[in-house]
Amino acid sequence: DQQVKQNSPSLSVQEGRISILNCDYTNSMFDYFLWYKKYPAEGPTFLISISSIKDKNEDGRFTVFLNKSAKHLSLHIVPSQPGDSAVYFCAAINNAGNMLTFGGGTRLMVKP
Amino acid sequence: KAGVTQTPRYLIKTRGQQVTLSCSPISGHRSVSWYQQTPGQGLQFLFEYFSETQRNKGNFPGRFSGRQFSNSRSEMNVSTLELGDSALYLCASSLDVQDRTAHGYTFGSGTRLTVV
User: Fold this and answer.
1) Is residue A75 within 8 Å of A58, Cβ to Cβ?
2) Domain A4-111 in CATH: superfamily?
3) Tens of pLDDT, residues A49-106
4) Which of B41, B97, B109 lies at the smallest CB-CB distance from A96?
């Protein structure tokens, strides 16, 4: 049973436009949600996180929105740049700091 | 400071063999976790070690095992390799629980294991 799901395996966006990556979860016990970016042959790199008590967190071009009632979060990248092309993973963890649970990833392609 | 170091980067093994992968966490990090990444299954949690003790274990067969040393370095071992074990094995470290919930783990670049 996948507790964290990313239903879109891929997304293509024009440079300068907004990229919106979505993630759904089923476990209401998650306390933190994180986004990671991964290039081929490299480990995932932490991007941004949000606590379950917040509904928005912003860091430069990256903003994460959390809708707890819908058990849904999204990552917005504005403006998108070709260097943002990578696989993005959504992940969740509880307050006890137990294992990070990952979604299946979404491959973002930003076209120049 | 140095990041998470995994060795070797690439490995080719034959079915039935065993393999040991190594991970050196960021200095001062006491928690080390291992993940398996495959194209069809995404990132799957294997196990986590903290201060030489296994704290959590994922849903993998007993052929997958690990350990952590007093200097926090960790190894994972896979015995009786199967073709399906071909994957990128990622190691991640964190300082403590609070650090992990706010910033997640710091991942190494992984070991690409190919079983033929």
Assistant:
1) no
2) Immunoglobulins (2.60.40.10)
3) 999 999 999 999 999 999 999 999 999 999 999 999 999 999 998 877 677 899 999 9
4) B97
